[in-house]
Amino acid sequence: MRILIVEDDPLLGPGLKTGLAQDGYAADWVQTAALAEHALRVEHFDVAVLDLGLPGRDGLSLLRDLRAGGLMIPVLILTARDTLADKVIGLDTGADDYLAKPFDLDELTARIRALTRRSCGHAAPILRAGTLELDTQDRCVSLDGEGVPLSPKEYALVETLIARADHVVPRARLLAAGYGWEDQLESNALEVHIHHLRAKLGKQRILTVRSVGYTLVSHPSS
Question: Which of UniProt's keywords are assigned here (predicted)?
Answer without folding.
Answer: DNA-binding, Phosphoprotein, Transcription, Transcription regulation, Two-component regulatory system
